[in-house]
Amino acid sequence: ASVNWYYMHFANQYIPVTLADGTVINASGTSDYQGVNLFVTDRPLYWLHVYSNLSFEKADYASYSISGKDYSGLPVSYVPSTLFNIGAYAKWYYSGMLFEPRVWVKYVGPQSIFDKENKLPSEQKMSAYTTLNLGLKAVVPVHLDFLHQLRVGLTLKNVTGNQYNGYEYITSGKTFGGDSKGALLGFPGAPREVYASLSAKF
Questions:
Q1: pLDDT band for position 176 (50/70/90)?
Q2: CB–CB of 32/12 below 8 Å?
Q3: Is the pLDDT of residue 38 over 80?
Q4: Would you list the domain boundaries of the chain?
Q5: Rg of the chain, C-alpha, whole Å
Q6: Are 198 and 152 spatial neighbours (Cβ–Cβ below 8 Å)?
Q7: Where is the signal peptide (predicted)?
Q8: Tens digits of residue pLDDT in 70-122
């Protein structure tokens, strides 16, 4: 297990933001990041490994200015206040093959978004989300002169099909036009995904 605290200070930052019409907002500032990371790993059984990590982070602009106007104290956009992962994987042999099933849960906490209408970081937050993920790897020995081993993998992400936004911002109205100015636009996170892989060792 391990625990660490950190503090990072970024000075003399140039912060360009591009709007939908190509306009670039030129801002400058200084930001402070501080937080705590916790990590735990264990092997309760000879074939079972478990792990977890938890992070708390706070990020603010000590100074943030646009065209000479100062907006100090605003949060840095898209920095989750909390990140949490917990998972387990096992290894065992069966009929000469090695199997490694895995399960893990990922939590991404609330995070401040950007306000393109007012051209500023916003204190409004996008919602937290959680995904459940599964995986299975197998190593299959092959007794051929030209082929010695096959590795097969299957990964399922967001198994429960949770619906969430992976990104949000307040629009300036230039993306869709009309009366959309000031509306909250969101980009859906990935739905249920399935990945398969196959590799060979010659």
A1: confident
A2: no
A3: yes
A4: 2-201
A5: 23
A6: yes
A7: none
A8: 889 999 999 999 999 999 999 999 988 999 999 999 999 999 999 988 889 99
Amino acid occupying residue 139: V
Contact 87, 102 (CB under 8 A): yes
Q: What is the pLDDT of residue 39?
A: 97
Amino acid of residue 147: L
Distances (CA, A) of 63 to 18, 26, 60, 191: 20, 14, 9, 38
Selection from 130, 129, 155, 150 nearest residue 140 by Cα: 150
Chain centre distance of CA 104: 14
Strand partners, 184: 170
Domain 2-201 fold is Maltoporin; Chain A (2.40.170)
Which is nearest to 195 in space by CA: 156, 162, 159? 156
Can you give the length of the chain in residues? 202
